[in-house]
């Protein structure tokens, strides 16, 4: 099933934009129209926020017993899994990613997001203290209307990751999916209604960031903003939020170092590094896009890696055998192409790839690409390409690897491949990043804090950190 007409979802109902305006979303694999989408204005956002505020103040959700909220969110989780085929199909055609990733990971993980935070909400810790003359206790109350601005690369998974925690905490929510990939987000409205989520608790507004996003981040009724996207837009969101002193959580760009030491299991490191850059066409903030390889194994590792790249099947995202699909848009394809040319002009060497996929001229297909003998000062090593382009950088010593890894404006993630346990922990502790994997990549425990440092954002979400962000701590003291 593919949506042909995606409307706004406000107060439990699907509706057109007030202006009646629409825009088209495009299938990246064909560049043909996929669906017509409501194009919201500031008026639509104002309406959705007012609905969310009234609903919050009514207490129908914010004061509902947490066990009852959890039942509804768990029902939503069940319904997501019942619709896994439809949701995966929509996600794949909207994003351009392989169907096996959508169906095998993204949508099931989305269902897990809803169930995890629903269950955890029942065990949020409230503090209690007593002294001789008085007693104090702290409550964590829902903050209020929450704006969630979702990126285009993992739309349904990112939306449920943010919304499930905000909803479980008792907030009302306004979601803006990316204009490139709004379709799966819109489908969550129907699921919410069927699960029994009260009208007005979840609202979904589609439209441009300059209009919809600005209104969502400057309205005085909004009490929390969570944004995922590139760093310059994150700065704009933060400036907007400052006008109303709205707390923000920002997960922004990355240029993560993937470090392979000479004592690593090379086959394991090749396989993990391959996934770390080419999963989701490289359109993932956690990508290990800077591959640092120790000089003593540099040539051997590069040969193994390039040979492994040859086995990646690029093609129709709906083919179960496809490993890598299409980039999200023509303009993004051109951006990736330009970066590869910049790298070659800077002196990088091309090991494999570097051009559009032959035989697929209609879509935004680009070959998995490896640039090697890269200097970390080059633009391709410093700027986020957000595509299937890996830069390979040699290093001599552990100290040099750490220095290169930290020589970046970003600090989101990193990977270390080594069989030396002491080295693994030593290097991991010295790399400036919010997340770091040792001998693996992309594994996530939802109880742990997630977020980055430097230009990769501020704040942490995940487990109790999500509930701390989406709630207000209130201390009540009583004389005994």
Walkthrough of the structure:
The chain is an alpha/beta fold. The protein has two domains: 272 residues, Aldehyde Dehydrogenase, Chain A, domain 1; 189 residues, Aldehyde Dehydrogenase, Chain A, domain 2 (3-Layer(aba) Sandwich). Helix content is 39%, strand content 21%. A seven-stranded mixed β-sheet has the order 15-16-17-14-13-19-20, sandwiched between helices. Strand 13, helix 9 and strand 14 form a beta-alpha-beta unit. The radius of gyration is 23 Å and the shape is globular. The termini are far apart. The model has no long low-confidence stretch (mean pLDDT 97).
Features:
Aldehyde Dehydrogenase, Chain A, domain 1, alpha/beta, 7-stranded mixed β-sheet, 15 helices, 39% helix, Aldehyde Dehydrogenase, Chain A, domain 2, 480 residues
Mean pLDDT: 97
What's the β-strand tally? 23
Distance between the termini: 62 Å
- Uncertain runs with pLDDT below 50, 5 residues or more? none
The CATH superfamily of the largest domain turns out to be Aldehyde Dehydrogenase, Chain A, domain 1
Strand content: 15-25%
**CATH fold naming of the largest domain:** Aldehyde Dehydrogenase, Chain A, domain 1
The main sheet comes to:
7 strands, mixed
Question: Radius of gyration over alpha carbons?
Answer: 23 Å
The SS-based structural class is alpha/beta
- How much helix, percentage-wise, in residues? 25-40%
Q: Count structural domains.
A: 2
Strand order of the largest sheet: 15-16-17-14-13-19-20
What is the 3D form? globular
In the CATH scheme, the class of the largest domain would be: Alpha Beta
Give me the CATH architecture of the largest domain, please: 3-Layer(aba) Sandwich
Number of helices: 15
